[in-house]
């Protein structure tokens, strides 16, 4: 691991995990008030540089921490996150706390109700310290908000933390909090985790409700592929976060039960190093080879495989479903006016280049054609599930490149010095692999080694069977202990 100063100390002295902190608070080794004050101090120290936390809930969090300590004195434990300070992506409604959803029109919007995911975190005892930054409408692979501005990568000032959960990943990587709530439709959990060297889970589609991810005065037209999910600095905390997030409010919240992690020597691992014909850069390839080497040394059966589904087909289906659903929530000027597809095509092409044609095609679908696209998605899901039944995990790069310097959205990027369209390093790794709805864990696996650039993290994706989220997390936990970082 490079010697990078995240908190005026080395990364090895980062704050405790959510699991460890919750244990310390419950056992009286640390008060919730002390944990919160430590968090606020870290935010005060670094947030002016990073711009990760855009709304701070200092007064409300202090009041809640005092209540948490008083509850423990009475012998009451709220839940497995009792007194643990967390931040939440500004895409989720938080009662009484400003939520913009990445929309300039809602820069001062204060919701009256919590999103379901936020309510479940609070019920588990979490203390909401603040809201973290996201790009316009939560739709970019960088993190620039039209009102709050840019968020920087804690590992490299001037570089992007990724998007759209960029503020979430930066908050974790900087050590502000141990647990975050993000969301993913085309890589918005996985890419920031990869860029910032943290862990993220994109849960199976439909596992977690999306209520409260849009303002109450706007319809939530995106029903498929979009998923909320936990982000953390360890897989163990992802397991804890998922347990809390998927337990309904009206169901007793039992202590989390984690399936035992498999012995790495028993694992059958498939690895694919190139998706959609897009090569990963030299650093990413080196890290992936190192992952294969370490797993093989640990006794795992590791084999290289071609991508088990047609990635071009998957990306087209993603665009058709996304384009159809997004267009139903667009302002009338995009939705109902003559030439609307020309207008929208121009906007989308500016943002996503070659992906524009897929999204615009989706916007033009009839309801019947949209249902056909959903069926096509189900067919791809079954095809990938058949492959995943033959392995314990499938590992792929999270993206073709590590974090890059801030740039205008839509500008060309580089893979080992070769100019490529803005979307190309991500499209086949993130949106195309989201369409089937399988659970995916992003793990930090190494760092760049280009001497003329700051070192940045590189992650890998661990894919599991549909609705087998616990199993893929258990496998990821085993891999985490073996892979490490170089």
UniProtKB/TrEMBL annotation:
Residues 35-308, 364-473 form the Amidase domain. The keyword Iron does not apply. It comes from the Bacteria. Transmembrane segments: none annotated. Residues 1-21 are annotated as: Disordered. Residues 8-19 have a biased composition (Low complexity). The keyword Coiled coil applies. Residues 363-390 form a coiled coil. InterPro entries: Amidase, Amidase_dom, AS_sf. GO terms for molecular function: catalytic activity. Pfam families: Amidase. Keywords: Coiled coil. This is Amidase.
């Amino acid at each position: 691991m490079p010697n990078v100063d995240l908190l005026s100390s080395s990364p090895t002295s980062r704050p405790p995990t959510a699991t460890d902190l919750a244990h310390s608070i419950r056992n009286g080794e640390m008060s919730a008030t002390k944990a919160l004050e430590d968090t606020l101090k870290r935010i005060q120290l670094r947030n002016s540089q990073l711009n990760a936390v855009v709304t701070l809930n200092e007064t409300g969090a202090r009041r809640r921490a005092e209540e948490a300590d008083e509850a423990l004195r009475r012998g009451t434990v709220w839940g497995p996150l009792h007194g643990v300070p967390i931040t939440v992506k500004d895409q989720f409604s938080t009662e009484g706390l400003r939520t913009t959803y990445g929309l300039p029109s809602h820069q001062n919007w204060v919701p009256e109700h919590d999103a379901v995911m936020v309510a479940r975190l609070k019920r588990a005892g979490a203390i909401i310290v603040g809201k973290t930054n996201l790009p316009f409408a939560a739709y970019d692979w960088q993190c620039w908000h039209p009102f709050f501005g840019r968020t920087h990568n804690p590992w490299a000032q001037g570089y992007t933390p990724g998007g759209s959960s960029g503020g979430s990943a930066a908050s974790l990587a900087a050590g502000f909090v141990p647990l975050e709530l993000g969301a993913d439709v085309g890589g918005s959990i996985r890419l920031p985790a990869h860029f910032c060297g943290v862990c993220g889970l994109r849960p199976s589609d439909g596992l977690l409700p999306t209520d409260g991810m849009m303002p109450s005065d706007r319809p939530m037209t995106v029903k498929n592929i979009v998923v909320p999910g936990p982000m953390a600095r360890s897989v163990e905390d992802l397991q804890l976060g998922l347990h809390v997030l998927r337990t309904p409010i009206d169901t007793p919240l039992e202590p989390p039960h984690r399936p035992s992690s498999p012995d790495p020597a028993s694992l059958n691992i498939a690895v694919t190093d190139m998706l959609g014909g897009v090569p990963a850069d030299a650093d990413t390839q080196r890290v992936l080879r190192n992952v294969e080497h370490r797993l093989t040394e640990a006794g795992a059966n590791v084999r290289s495989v071609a991508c088990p589904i047609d990635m071009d087909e998957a990306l087209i289906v993603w665009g058709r479903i996304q384009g159809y659903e997004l267009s139903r929530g667009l302002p009338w000027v995009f939705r109902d006016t003559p030439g609307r597809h020309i207008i929208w095509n121009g906007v989308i092409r500016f943002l996503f280049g070659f992906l524009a044609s897929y999204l615009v095609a989706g916007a033009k679908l009839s309801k019947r054609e949209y249902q056909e696209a959903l069926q096509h998605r189900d067919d791809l899901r079954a095809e990938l599930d058949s492959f995943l039944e033959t392995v314990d995990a499938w590992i792929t790069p999270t993206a073709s490149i590590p974090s890059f310097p801030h740039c205008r959205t839509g500008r060309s990027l580089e893979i080992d010095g070769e100019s490529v369209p803005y979307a190309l390093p991500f499209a086949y790794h993130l949106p195309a692999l989201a369409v089937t709805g399988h659970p995916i864990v992003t793990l930090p696996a190494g760092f760049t080694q280009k001497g003329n650039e700051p070192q940045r993290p590189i992650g890998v994706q661990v894919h599991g069977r549909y609705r087998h989220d616990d199993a893929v997390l258990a496998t990821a936990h085993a891999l985490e202990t073996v892979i490490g970082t170089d």
